[in-house]
């Protein structure tokens, strides 16, 4: 396939200044008339042809300044010999939205029209310079049958609407802001809206709407509240106001990803809009808030200032993920006192880091490894990755760690002052941060250009007689890093603390600093390959302090330090940095689990160390800890994360070790789990707040542990909870516990659940996912999955449904998926190929499940390689071919 390189960037020869689009909407033959005001850029030779990109379009006519013009489409490029410096070009085409199963461009979902243009979908709607550095103002007229499509929406403001002959009607929209084509959107159909008018800080009124299908209207309140909270937060924290008179969110059931930030008309997967007590879990509520925030925040970071080219994607995505993380943290912290707030912030950080380490670190160690700002791609849709998003957000977070919140804000202000209305690069953002803070960030550029997860090896030395503590930090990349990008030393903000024997923080002062500089957490700037920092003025002849390293996860690195179990148990009990308290427990559990998995993998009998059992017992018994934090501390590292830590991943052994450890923790602390279960009922009406959600999470975690016990008590608890639950979190957790226990109670509950929620697609997704994620038991999960595949409610064309069954099994159930007989791999290959023909983007995501095949024990590798070969031989899309080609390469 053709590979596109960052170094080949060239500005476009022509500018498109205005776009006037006219749509005659029809599911099978939509006619699009596109009139553009085009200007040749200064210095471009007059004979340079204009080449507009198009994909799958039927060309009807082209006129140049009102006169029919010669134009031809070769290989998806419409060449127009304009020969003048400034002109008006009208291109008329038609397309077939109902036949569009890729869900890119214009498509039909449940009888309504939607668009998705990022990254390169606009070219499926009309011929265009479909690249983000071409910014134009759009006027859009939509015409359609009035009865079938009563609502007609596009970006910006509604300026005109009215009837047309033959039962049709039209609406005209004007977006006053210049934008790249990937932010264009239209929606047409039978929809209703929850509406609210608010005033922003300067007093201007704004109309907010959440558009959904009529039956979903009662599930829109939370999305609306989240939108209002997002608007307020962006004004307060960054001084960034909503710039349009109206802001719309629209929900659609068929959508490739989470949501899309189209200017003034955000289009969302229903999963991230609809929520009510009966059908959405606490996690769903939190996700709606986060995604509504994310898309709203793009209005400034992405839309007002956009990307020059797609290699700069992290400019908007890393920054906007960072913003949504901070928003969610503030929202969770807003409810309680200072201690509760700090704990809520730590819990949010823990969730984000868990996900980063499980998915991004693995990506960065595999064949798709790429820098935050990639150097090349075959299919840009394959680069909407956890590296660009989540590692990108960590890179942005490091500016804030280095300069503080105020310094970060100064950088943001300068960024908007310089670049509002422009399409820019990651370097421009870094320069604004540097200039606003009088800093030199040249070295920091490497975070954007070097792939792989850096490791920091730590050595410590304590001179008790002198009260000095030396910390030597050495940074490097793993030897087997799969990337040819440079491996030069990075600027790593490394936050540390030291605990005395009683677990209290020691004041820390570097040897060249005045006494007043002492603080209990110090952010060390590691810039060299190896550097030593010396803390002085510690108590003379004190006990050896315990280091708390990389507090709050101050950089996306792996810390290598030889803690013994006692030190980890001590940190878990005492560290003032809540993130590192959690981290100590995870390290302790990870080490124990990996030892057990190795033993089991070699055919031996594993035992869990009593230090670990006791350390977890202390957390269980510590009622001073916030429930949400306790739940995180008591949740073991995931099987996927653990397998990634092995030299050769053995998912079966990991699953066995983790199950054994859960069983041992359940049995050793049965009374405590029982007590936690009883003590954490939530009183009063259901509220999806962080505090209440934390109580439910801890209680349901306890139920899960109790379900590991051989007696029947947990089954009774779970059955009662299932029946009496007044919210989806408790009902679904109880269903999960019952499913794990198995037997007829599980079958009955699963059936009841299906009947209860038959008409709630998002809940039926959960029903499929839960079953796909059960470990092999009396029945093999692959058989259940194949049976569910033929269930009348299954539909491969709906991405949420495909993800709920297929992805849940292939990516969310490692032990069953990696069965020794390769049955999982055969299923995977079939499904990738089936999806490849329907929806390449979704297919490519599924294809990525096997990209780490070389990491696994030899007995599994052959089966994976064969499945990959089979897909390579049959796949047609650029998307899947790029992924599988790299995996096999
Ligand atoms: N910007 C979109 C992602 C588009 C993905 C295209 N394959 C959603 C987001 O990050 O907010
Ligand atoms: Zn985004």
TrEMBL record:
GO biological process terms on file: proteolysis
Span of domain Peptidase M1 alanyl aminopeptidase Ig-like fold: 452-561
GO terms for MF: alanyl aminopeptidase activity; metallopeptidase activity; zinc ion binding
Descriptive protein name: Aminopeptidase N
EC numbers on record: 3.4.11.2
The entry's keywords: Aminopeptidase, Hydrolase, Metal-binding, Metalloprotease, Protease, Zinc
Organism expressing this protein natively: Chitinasiproducens palmae
InterPro entries: Aminopeptidase_N-like_N, Aminopeptidase_N-like_N_sf, PepN_Ig-like_sf, Peptidase_M1, Peptidase_M1_dom, Peptidase_M1_pepN, Peptidase_M1_pepN_C, Peptidase_M1_pepN_C_sf
CDD domains per UniProt: M1_APN
Cofactor(s) needed for function: Zn(2+)
Domain Peptidase M1 alanyl aminopeptidase C-terminal: residue ranges: 565-888
Keyword Hydrolase: yes
Aminopeptidase N-like N-terminal domain residues: 100-183
Family: Belongs to the peptidase M1 family.
Domain of life: Bacteria
Keyword NADP annotated: no
Enzyme class: hydrolase
Reaction equations catalysed: Release of an N-terminal amino acid, Xaa-|-Yaa- from a peptide, amide or arylamide. Xaa is preferably Ala, but may be most amino acids including Pro (slow action). When a terminal hydrophobic residue is followed by a prolyl residue, the two may be released as an intact Xaa-Pro dipeptide
Transmembrane domains' residue ranges: none
């Amino acid at each position: 396939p053709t590979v596109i390189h960052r170094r080949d960037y060239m500005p476009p020869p022509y500018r498109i200044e205005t776009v006037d689009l006219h749509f005659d909407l029809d599911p099978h033959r939509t006619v699009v008339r596109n009139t553009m005001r085009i200007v040749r850029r200064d210095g471009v030779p007059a004979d340079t042809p204009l080449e507009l990109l198009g994909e799958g379009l039927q060309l009807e006519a082209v006129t140049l300044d009102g006169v029919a013009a010669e134009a031809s489409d070769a290989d998806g490029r419409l060449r127009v010999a304009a020969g003048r410096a400034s002109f008006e070009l009208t291109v008329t085409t038609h397309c077939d939205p109902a036949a569009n199963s890729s869900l890119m461009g214009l498509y039909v979902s449940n009888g309504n029209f939607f668009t998705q243009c990022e990254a390169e979908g606009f070219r499926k709607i009309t011929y265009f310079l479909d690249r983000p550095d071409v910014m134009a103002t759009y006027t859009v007229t939509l015409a359609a049958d009035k009865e079938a499509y009563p609502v007609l929406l596009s970006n910006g403001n509604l300026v005109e609407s009215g009837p047309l002959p033959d039962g049709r009607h039209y609406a005209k929209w004007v977006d006053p802001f210049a934008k790249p084509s990937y932010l264009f959107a239209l929606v047409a159909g039978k929809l209703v809206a929850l509406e609210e008018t608010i005033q922003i800080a300067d007093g201007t009124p704004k109309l907010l709407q959440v558009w959904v299908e009529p039956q979903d209207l009662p599930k829109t309140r939370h999305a609306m509240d989240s939108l209002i909270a997002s608007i307020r937060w962006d004004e307060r924290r960054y001084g960034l106001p909503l710039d349009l008179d109206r802001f719309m969110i629209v929900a659609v059931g068929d959508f490739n990803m989470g949501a899309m930030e189209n200017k003034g008309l955000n289009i969302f997967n229903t999963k991230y809009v609809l929520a009510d007590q009966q059908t959405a879990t606490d996690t769903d509520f939190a996700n709606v808030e986060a995604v509504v925030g994310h898309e709203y925040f793009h209005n400034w970071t992405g839309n007002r200032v956009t990307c020059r080219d797609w290699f700069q994607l992290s400019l908007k995505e890393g920054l906007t993920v960072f913003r949504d993380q901070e928003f969610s943290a503030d929202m969770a912290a807003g409810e309680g006192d200072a201690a509760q707030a700090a704990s809520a912030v730590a819990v949010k950080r823990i969730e984000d880091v868990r996900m980063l380490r499980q998915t991004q670190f693995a990506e960065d160690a595999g064949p798709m490894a790429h820098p935050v700002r990639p150097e090349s791609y075959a299919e840009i849709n394959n680069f909407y990755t956890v590296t660009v998003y989540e590692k990108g957000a960590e890179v942005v977070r490091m500016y804030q760690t280095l300069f503080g919140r105020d310094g970060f804000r100064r950088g943001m202000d300068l960024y908007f002052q310089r670049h509002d209305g422009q399409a820019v690069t990651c370097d421009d953002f870094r320069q604004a941060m540097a200039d606003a803070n009088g800093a030199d960030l040249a070295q920091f550029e490497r975070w954007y250009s070097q792939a792989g997860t850096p490791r920091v090896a730590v050595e410590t030395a304590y001179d008790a007689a002198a009260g000095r503590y030396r910390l030597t930090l050495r940074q490097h990349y793993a030897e087997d890093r799969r990337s040819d990008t440079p491996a030069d030393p990075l600027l790593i903000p490394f936050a540390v603390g030291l605990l005395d024997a009683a677990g209290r923080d020691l004041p820390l002062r570097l040897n060249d600093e005045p006494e007043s500089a002492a603080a209990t957490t110090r952010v060390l700037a590691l810039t060299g390959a190896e550097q030593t920092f010396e803390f002085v003025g510690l108590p003379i002849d004190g006990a050896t302090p315990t280091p708390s390293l990389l507090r709050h996860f101050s950089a996306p690195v792996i810390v290598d330090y030889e803690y013994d179990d006692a030190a980890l148990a001590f940190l878990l009990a005492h560290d003032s940095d809540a993130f590192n308290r959690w981290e100590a427990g995870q390290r302790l559990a990870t080490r124990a689990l990996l030892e057990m998995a190795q033993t089991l993998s070699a055919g031996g009998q594993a035992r869990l160390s009593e230090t670990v059992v006791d350390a977890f017992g202390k957390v269980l018994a510590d009622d001073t800890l916030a429930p949400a934090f306790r739940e995180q501390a008591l949740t073991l590292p995931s099987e996927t994360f653990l397998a990634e830590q092995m030299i050769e991943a053995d998912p079966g052994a990991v699953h066995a070790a983790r199950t054994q450890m859960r069983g041992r923790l359940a049995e050793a602390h049965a009374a405590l789990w029982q007590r936690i279960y009883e003590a954490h009922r939530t009183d009063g009406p259901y509220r999806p707040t962080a505090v209440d959600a934390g109580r439910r999470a801890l209680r349901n975690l306890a139920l899960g542990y109790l379900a590991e016990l051989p007696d029947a008590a947990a089954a009774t608890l779970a059955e009662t909870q299932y029946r009496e639950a007044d919210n989806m979190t408790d009902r679904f957790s109880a269903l999960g516990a019952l499913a794990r226990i198995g037997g007829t109670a599980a079958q009955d509950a699963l059936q009841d659940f299906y009947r209860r929620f038959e008409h709630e697609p998002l809940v039926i997704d959960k029903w499929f996912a839960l079953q796909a994620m059960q470990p092999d038991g009396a029945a093999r999960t692959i058989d259940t999955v194949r049976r569910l595949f033929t269930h009348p409610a299954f539909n491969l064309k709906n991405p949420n449904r495909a993800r709920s069954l297929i992805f849940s099994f292939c990516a969310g159930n490692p032990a069953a998926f990696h069965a020794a007989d390769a049955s999982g791999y055969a299923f995977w290959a079939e499904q990738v190929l089936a999806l490849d023909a329907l929806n390449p983007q979704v297919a490519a995501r599924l294809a990525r499940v096997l990209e780490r095949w070389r990491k696994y024990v030899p007995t599994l590798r052959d089966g994976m390689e064969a499945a990959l070969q089979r897909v390579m031989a049959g796949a047609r899309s650029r998307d899947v071919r790029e992924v599988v080609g790299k995996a096999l390469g």
